[in-house]
Every structure is written in C-alpha cells, then in structure tokens.
Write a structure and sequence with these properties.
121 residues, mainly alpha, 2 helices
C-alpha cells in the first residue's frame, strides 16, 4: 500500500515540476514580447500609441500567467501537505527549490490595480 501511494505521489511530482517550469518560461517569453514591441516601436520612431491594444492584451496575458503561477505554487504546497497526510513525510520528490510555504502566499500578494479605461482584465 505504501509503494502505491509513493508511486502515485511520484507521478504527480513528475508532472508538477515541468508545469511550474513551463509557466515561468511562458511568463518570461510574454515579458520579452512586450519589451520587443516597445523597443521596436522606439527604433521605428512610431507614435507611442502604436500597438497599444496589443501591449494591453499581452500585459493581460502576463497577469493571467502570473495568477496561474501563484495558483500552481499553492497547489504544490497542497500536494506537499497531502504527501505528509498519506504517510510520505520523509519522501523527497526532487524539488530543485524549497517547497512553497503552506500558508498560501496568495493572501500575502498585493492586489493588482488596473488603470481606468485599460483593457487589462
């Protein structure tokens, strides 16, 4: 029975870690898209309003990715608690970093403010 629980937990870890890495990679690429758009507009000497809607949508995507990153971190902490609950407290799953705090960092995150009239949702 313990081996089955361990196998199940290892299966979750095998998918969780790449999901965390992929989310952060997506967030990095999305940020770089915004940088490239702003730098490109400046180099081309286009009006500052050029590409505004696209930048707003990209910023919205980044905000959603950031929220997904936080949710996945909270899920990671919950999976760690579950592991402890099913008798696998001493098992390490190969985390490269410390596990997220179990308290749920979501409560400690500052709220985002949106500029009135912007398309960020």
């Amino acid at each position: 029975m313990l081996n089955q629980r361990l196998s199940a937990a290892q299966g979750v870890a095998k998918e969780l870690f790449p999901a965390e890495e992929t989310l952060e990679a997506a967030l990095l690429h999305t940020s770089r898209v915004m940088i490239a758009a702003i730098e490109g507009r400046r180099l081309a000497k286009l009006p500052i309003t050029t590409g505004q809607a696209a930048l707003e949508r990209t910023a919205a995507a980044a905000t959603h990715l950031l929220a997904a990153r936080a949710a996945l971190g909270e899920a990671h902490a919950a999976f760690r608690r579950t592991s402890d609950e099913i008798g696998l407290r001493a098992v390490s799953y190969g985390d490269l970093n410390e596990c997220p705090p179990p308290s749920g960092a979501a409560e400690e995150r500052p709220a985002f403010s949106v500029v009135p009239g912007s398309m960020v949702a």
